[in-house]
Structure formats: C-alpha cells, structure tokens
Amino acid sequence: MNEDDLSWLYAAYKKGCFGPLFAPDMQGAEFKEDCAKFLMKWPHRWLVRARYKGTRELHPVGLMVATSDMHRLFPHAIWFPWATRRNILEGLLGFLRDATEAGWLVVIASGDKFRDFFTKLMRYGIVKRVGVIPGWFADTEAAVHAIEGSGTDAMFFYARKK
Predict the structure, then answer these.
(1) DSSP H helix total and E strand total for the chain
(2) Average per-residue pLDDT in the chain?
(3) Which of 58, 67, 80, 132 could form a disulfide with 49 if both were Cys (CB 3.0 to 4.6 A apart)?
(4) How do strand 72-79 and strand 105-110 relate by DSSP bridges?
(5) What pTM was computed for the model?
(6) Is the pLDDT reported for residue 100 higher than 60?
(7) Rounded to whole angstroms, what are the CA distances from 11 to 68, 72, 88, 90?
(8) CA-CA distance, 40 to 150, in Å (whole number)?
(9) Comparing C-alpha atoms, which of 49, 50, 51, 47 is closest to residue 35?
C-alpha cells in the first residue's frame, strides 16, 4: 500500500467505514499510522477497485485483507460507503480474477446473508454450485460454489439450512 492508497482509506474512515477498528476523530497522520499497523497484521492486502460513475476510470471501492495457508487464500472485504452494489460485484470479480491468476485457491466462507449474492452470481453464469459440506457451520451445512470454468480456483461457502 502506498501513500495514495492510505489517503483513500482515510477518506473511507472519515465516512465511518471502519467502525470500532480505529479510534474516532483521528487526524490524517494519526490515522495513517494506526492504519499501517492494522494492515501489517494481514499478510495480504489490496484496494479493490471498480469503475467510477459510468467511466472507465477505476477507483477504490473497498479494502480486501487476507490470510493464507499454503495455496489457499482466506479474504475479508471491507466495502467503502460509496461502493454501489455494482461496484462491489465488479470489484469482487476483479479481485477473484487477479487472485486466481496469481495461483491462489480463494476460499470465502460467509453466513446466510450472502445467499442472494451467490444466487445472483449463479444467474449471471459467473459461478456454479458444486456441492455441500455438512457441518461446515455450527448447525448448518455449507453450500459450495466455484467460479464457472475455473476448476477449483475459487470456492465460496454460505450457510444453508438442512
């Protein structure tokens, strides 16, 4: 992450994006110092970008941080307040494309709240359902999806009632 990236993160912070992660009402230099410490806790981090207001320009719409285990990447997204649903979709797909091209098996485990999102990705033909994993979540099974045509480059799980 460079100074320009930290400026985008500060703008998101000023709009209330990071909630309890950072103290309220920090000034720019103080935030950038605390943010740099936060980012160093994550071995992998990216600004997620998407097109801005119908132009071809890409602007940051979220922060993706991740841990990894061998070839598996476990990302967590923090979407900026100005990210639209379309920005989130475009940004996530761009991130997945870049991560899988870099050789990562991307594993996203989310609760039931993302069921509609994965259903939309299936309707668009972007992902396909590949099965279920009993007991992945405490009292439910996990529905497993993969990027269409990618083999097992990216897998998504969400809680599904039995």
Answers:
(1) 4, 7
(2) 83
(3) 58
(4) parallel
(5) 0.81
(6) yes
(7) 28, 31, 18, 21
(8) 31
(9) 47
